[in-house]
């Protein structure tokens, strides 16, 4: 998996969310009681945080996390969205805008947001301002674990990336990586190496053995964004692309072929058949 492609996806989507933040900050500045603007800002910060954490951009993750905490207090009515708060959030968004550009070029560790973080922490308070655990490395599509017998905690999962999403293969790989962090993943169908193929349609299935609840698993998968559906258990079993012990074998040996050459081939084959008859 090409890390540069993930960085390009992160940068493109983060810029969109930064633009949305600036738009909603303008609304909040004009109307401090605009709750929808607060909710939209919170969602944008949450998404940037999740994407940065998946990429391993610890500094950007931390700033987005602290900003998200502050916005959560504003949503709850604990902190008032006055002019000073809007100015601070604007500064945080400006720093994030600079940070995502630097992080995407491999300079996340050189970023220093300490001045903004200290001011955010003063409003949030020590209990809510705790640092996040160190972010994992860049997402990659993990190889399926060796096939083994399934225990009572094993269940099938079917995931579909939203149609039209940018780089569905990268999105699928990040979703699969999230699942691997919660349990033992096997029988990835189609194989993770196929996520980057031209014909990948964004749908894939796997089995996972975990003691986490279905809701936790679904939330983790959806956190990467642009996930259309997550089906777990019996419903996922009914959608499995292939059944039986040879399901994974068949998934690795299936190929996608354009129907037009097949139609042309059938037409050409039909001509000698007619001549023979």
Quaternary form: single chain
The computed structural class is alpha+beta
Q: Indicate how many domains the architecture comprises.
A: 2
According to CATH, what is the class of the largest domain?
Answer: Mainly Alpha
Total number of beta strands = 4
Bin the strand percentage. Answer: 5-15%
Form type:
elongated
Helix fraction, binned, reads: 55-70%
CATH superfamily of the largest domain, called what? Answer: HPT domain
Low-confidence stretches: 127-149, 243-254
Distance between the termini: 53 Å
> Based on the structure given, which CATH architecture of the largest domain is correct?
Up-down Bundle
Question: How would you describe what is shown here?
Answer:
The chain has two domains: 3-124, HPT domain (Four Helix Bundle (Hemerythrin (Met), subunit A)); 154-261, Histidine kinase CheA-like, P2 response regulator-binding domain (Alpha-Beta Plaits). 55% of the residues lie in helices and 10% in strands. It has ten helices and four strands. It has a four-stranded antiparallel β-sheet. Mean pLDDT is 78; it is low at 127-149 and 243-254.
In short:
With 277 residues, this protein is an alpha+beta fold.
Notable features of this structure?
alpha+beta; 277 residues; 4 strands; Four Helix Bundle (Hemerythrin (Met), subunit A); Alpha-Beta Plaits
Topology, please?
Blueprint: H1 3-30, H2 35-55, H3 58-76, H4 83-104, H5 114-124, E1 154-161, H6 168-180, E2 184-189, E3 203-209, H7 214-222, E4 227-232, H8 234-238, H9 247-253, H10 259-276
Antiparallel strand pairs: 1-3, 1-4, 2-3
